[in-house]
Amino acid sequence: MWPRAPGDGRGGGPMCALVSKDGKDKVRALLSPLSAALVRARVHPNTLTLVGFLLSAASGWLLATGRIRIGAIVFLAGGAFDMLDGLVARQGGKGSRFGAFLDSTVDRYSEIIPYLGLAFYLRESSYFYLPFLAITGSLMVSYARARIEGLGGSCRVGLLERPERIAILFLGLILGERPLFVALLVLAAGSHFTALQRMRHARSVL
Predict the structure, then answer these.
(1) Model's pTM, two decimal places?
(2) pLDDT tens digits for 3-14?
(3) How many angstroms separate the CA atoms of 106 and 56, rounded?
(4) Dist CA 129 CA 11 (whole Å)
(5) Domain 13-205 in this protein, CATH class
(6) Which stretches within the chain are classed as H helix?
(7) Does 132 score more than 90 pLDDT?
(8) 163-192, pLDDT tens digit by residue?
(9) How far apart are CA 89 and CA 111, in angstroms?
(10) Closest alpha carbon to 59 in 128, 113, 123
(11) pLDDT of 106-128, one tens digit each?
């Protein structure tokens, strides 16, 4: 179950710090020494992609069985590996078209499984449907970008990209039941809004 949250979770301080561009740059800077060490150890980025998937799958099981705090930590670790594989690919010069395909495909499974676990845990709650709305929107965000880029356009726009979605869900899980409800609302509305933003963007680039 959730630990007692400090305060009532209002205000955007920690969440804004995590999801802002400056926050993402700081996370990348924090992970950079680890990615450099992995490059020196000749760890292949595809291996990191698969480790991230296993962590996300484990977090889904932990969430489904009610171990919310540890599930949140494992979920965040899976998200960190999602950033590490790209850093290692760039720093080690091991980027490939198959690696990009594998990363994008496995990432979708890594997104879906924790939400399914959370939906199972919330199955008797009045807001059990929110994880389904959130993951549907998240998949549409990713699909919109894939289609735009597949048709020759570029797509780096949108309110909630994957790092933001990971940060919001993590904070909701850690802070308690009420913040989780708010986080799921934000994810459900924000992800679908982001998909619509990308649909509008497609008209200008295709």
Answers:
(1) 0.83
(2) 333 333 334 444
(3) 10
(4) 25
(5) mainly alpha
(6) 13-19, 21-40, 45-64, 68-92, 97-121, 130-150, 162-175, 177-205
(7) yes
(8) 889 999 999 999 988 999 999 999 999 999
(9) 21
(10) 113
(11) 999 999 999 999 999 999 999 99
Give burial (CB, 10 Å; 0-12/13-18/19+) of 115.
buried
CA–CA gap between residue 158 and residue 72 (Å, rounded): 25
Token reading at 187:
């994810």
User: Using an 8 Å Cβ cutoff, are 158 and 197 in contact?
Assistant: yes
Q: Comparing C-alpha atoms, which of 132, 37, 124, 121 is closest to residue 87?
A: 37
Joined together, the tokens standing for residue 81 give 């590996």
- Residue 56 and residue 5: Cα distance in Å, rounded? 24
Phi, psi angles (nearest 5°) of residue 123: -60, -25
Residue whose structure tokens are 């409800």: 181
- The burial of 55, by beta-carbon neighbours within 10 Å (0-12 exposed, 13-18 middle, 19 or more buried), is given as buried
| Nearest-angstrom CA–CA distance, 156 and 89 | 20
The domains of the chain are located at: 13-205
Task: Please provide the size of the chain in residues.
Answer: 206
Q: What is the DSSP letter of 160?
A: -
pLDDT for res 8: 36
Q: Are 192 and 159 in contact (CB under 8 A)?
A: no
Residue 61 sits at the vertex; the CA angle it makes with 50 and 133, to the nearest 5 degrees, is: 90
